[in-house]
C-alpha cells in the first residue's frame, strides 16, 4: 500500500532543525497509524517537496528512521514502514535499561507484577477464538518440546506467552510485557546456546504442567485461578533461572549487546 501524496499537505520546517523536524513528523505519522506497517512512503522527491527541504536531507532522515526500526529502505523500490508504537517502546526500554545491572531475576520480577493484572483481564476478556489460539500455541510448544530444535522451542515459548498478554487488550501493558517475554527468552538463548538439543527440550518440558494449569484456568474463565497459575508459572521460571549459574550471572546489557 502506498501513502498517497494527494492526502498529504505541504509542511514547512525550520532549516536549522529540518532533519529533526522531518523525522519527528514522519515518526508521528507512523505512531498515529496514518502510515501503517507495510505502507510505502512517498518518494524522496515527494517528501522533499512536502517538507520544503532537499532530497539529501530526506535521505538522511530515512537513514535515521531505518536505524530505529521504523522504516526499511529498499533499493529501487522506496522506503516502507516496518515499525509501530511497539517498536518505539521496545527501543526506549532497551536504552533505558542498557546501563543498569539488570539480570533475569529483575526481568522476571517485573514481568510477574505486570502479568498479575494482564492474567486477570485475560480471564475476563479472552474470546473463544483467542482461547483456541492459546490452546494451539500450547500444543505446538509441547510438540516442539518433544521433537523440535532449540530455536523452535524459543519461538513457540514467546508466541504462547505473548498470546495471553494480547488477550488482556491493554496495548501499553502488552508492549512492556512482550519486551520482557522476549528478553527473558534471549537471556536463555545466550546462556544455553552451546548446550545440547536434549537440554532445551527437557527445559521446555519442565514447565508443561504450569502451562496446562494456566490454560485450564483460562478455559474456566476463573480470574483468581488464572492469576495464581500465572504467578506459579513465572515463579517456577524464576527459581530455575536463579539455580543456573550461567543464566543468573548474565546482565541485560550482555543480552542487548549480543546478536541474539
TrEMBL record:
UniProt-listed PROSITE patterns: HTH_GNTR
Please list the residue ranges annotated as the HTH gntR-type domain. Answer: 16-84
Task: Report the Gene3D superfamilies cross-referenced here.
Answer: GntR ligand-binding domain-like, Winged helix-like DNA-binding domain superfamily/Winged helix DNA-binding domain
Top-rank lineage group of the source organism: Bacteria
UniProt keywords (A-Z) are:
DNA-binding, Transcription, Transcription regulation
Matching InterPro entries, A to Z?
A: GntR_C, TF_FadR/GntR_C, Tscrpt_reg_HTH_GntR, WH-like_DNA-bd_sf, WH_DNA-bd_sf
Give the protein name, as stated in the record.
FadR family transcriptional regulator
Lineage per the UniProt record: Bacteria, Bacillati, Actinomycetota, Actinomycetes, Propionibacteriales
Record Pfam families: FCD, GntR
One GO term in the molecular function aspect is: DNA-binding transcription factor activity
